[in-house]
Amino acid sequence: MNFHVMTLFPEMIRSGMDTSIIGRAMASGILSLEAVNIRDYTLDKHKKVDDYPYGGGAGMLMQAQPVYDCYHAIVQRIAESGRKGQKARVIYVTPQGKTFQQQMAKEFAREEDLIFLCGHYEGIDERVLEQIVTDYVSIGDYVLTGGELPACIMTDAIVRLIPGAMNDESSALSDSFQDDLLAPPVYTRPAEFNGWRVPDILLSGNHAKIREWQEKVAYERTKTLRPDLLGEQGDF
Ligand code: ADE
């Protein structure tokens, strides 16, 4: 799978993604990630990428031209690699988008190429968004200074669903949210810590009973912590 991130701060993406599972997946060729600097595509001789909003208002906006040309350079590179660049989904990370969830991560993990667009300042000229963006996605109802951290978060959630990216494939299947339930609690050695014992059932060796216990506890935990996942009202 190939990720392409359009950003004014490529180092934020590279340093956020170069580690651990993602770094390994990149090294093994399962995954490629390019952070593309939008500023490299501005036609302005001072390398400017922002300007004042028409109609007034606070702050500056990212201009359409550098974003548009950056997008087309990526599409062209994808096409040169023999894939269908025009078909790649373009995800604009914005607090105005649909909230990112595990189901969305699963859907995106099926794509061959994904293009992220990270905004900065007070936003991006609407005309380029309407021309290139296919999905508007937020990571939650709060406002960050830019789209780079949300893009890293979404990439991380998607990458771990790509076959071969994780050491242990089954661990992605036992995640929270996989069956719309939170994951059950987990324990490792020693069997007793500060006088607290691991639940006896987990030491029993009876795998059917262990599975049954895990399902029951996962359900109870979901009911207490995230009743909304079960279609119930919470106390929020
Ligand atoms: N950019 C700024 N805040 C954001 C958020 N909550 N989600 C996605 N992109 C953002």
Polypeptide structure, described:
Helices cover about 35% and strands about 15% of the residues. The protein has about 240 residues and is of the alpha/beta class. It has a five-stranded parallel β-sheet with strand order 2-1-6-5-7, with helices on both faces. β8 and β9 form a beta hairpin. α1 (about 10-15) packs parallel to α6 and α3 runs parallel beside α5 (about 125-130). It is elongated, with a radius of gyration of 22 Å. The two termini are about 40 Å apart. About 25% of the residues are buried. Adenine (ADE) binds next to β5.
Topology at a glance:
Blueprint: E1 2-7, H1 10-17, H2 20-27, E2 32-37, E3 50-51, E4 61-62, H3 64-80, E5 89-99, H4 102-108, E6 113-118, H5 126-132, E7 135-138, H6 148-159, H7 169-173, E8 192-193, E9 196-197, H8 207-225
Parallel strand pairs: 1-2, 1-6, 5-6, 5-7
Antiparallel strand pairs: 3-4, 8-9
Helix pairs in contact: 1-6, 3-5
The protein binds adenine.
Bound molecules: adenine
* End-to-end CA span: 38 Å
How would you characterize the largest beta sheet?
5 strands, parallel
SSE string, helix = H, strand = E?
EHHEEEHEHEHEHHEEH
Oligomer: single chain
Number of strands: 9
Derived from helix and strand composition plus strand pairing, the structural class reads alpha/beta
- The best one-word shape is elongated
Number of helices: 8
Low-confidence residue ranges: none
How much strand content do the residues show? 15-25%
Strand order of the largest sheet: 2-1-6-5-7
Helicity, as a percent range? 25-40%
**Taking all residues together, what is the mean pLDDT?**
93
Radius of gyration: 22 Å
